[in-house]
Amino acid sequence: MTTILVTGGTGTLGRLVAERLRADGHEVRVLSRHAQPYAVDLRKGGAGLDAAVAGVDTIVHCATAPGGGDEEAAAHLIAAARRADVRHLVYISIVGVDRVPLGYYRTKFAVEGLVEESGLGWTVLRATQFHDLPARLFGIVSKAPVMLLPARVKDQPVEVAEVADRLAELALGAPAGRVPDMGGPEVRTLDSLARAYLRATGRRRLVVSVPLWGKAYGGFRSGGHLTPGLAAGKGTFEEYLGRRFGGGQKV
């Protein structure tokens, strides 16, 4: 039996990774800011982090904070992993972090570099956005009578449970370096995804695509965040919406 630490283990992805590893009979420690007995703020490190990592064979690093602090958190985690002689560090990143000049993407790419230079055995998986991200976006913009969306942008959302399965598989294997990216089964325009969301929620809104500007928008418009040749995911956006919303009432 392997002892595995999952950071961000109460989050959308980390919780599923922990469940899969436990189902396979492994001892799983869940680290997050509020999960006892390993309640640790990775951005600060400290004795609690050393206790969480002690005796661990593999770390699956899912913790992230879009508001900032990921590089500091990774540095503290790597230092603790070195002290504990951890065999394998698995990191989940995002497709396009080296191609789309968005601040959060730059941070994820920088963390990839820290992992690669850590001196530990390491594996990095990049995945496209989970289904719940466009769903959250559409939930916000559909509050108005007209849904305004970035023009000429596509997305390739992937089922988070499938990414969790892949991470669990990687955690149980040998360090593999940068593994092939993982994308959802379909590359879709944002307006087609938005209309699917409206059908699922029973809402009627006018969908309007609006040209934007800036380097980050250009990166998304050019498809830097997509991986159509590595569409390993099977679950579609409509299937996700069906599970989440069923039939919606008209609003």
TrEMBL record:
Residues 8-170 form the NAD(P)-binding domain. SUPFAM superfamilies: NAD(P)-binding Rossmann-fold domains. Signal peptide: none annotated. It holds the Pfam family NAD_binding_10. This is NAD(P)H-binding protein. The lineage of its organism: Bacteria, Bacillati, Actinomycetota, Actinomycetes, Kitasatosporales.
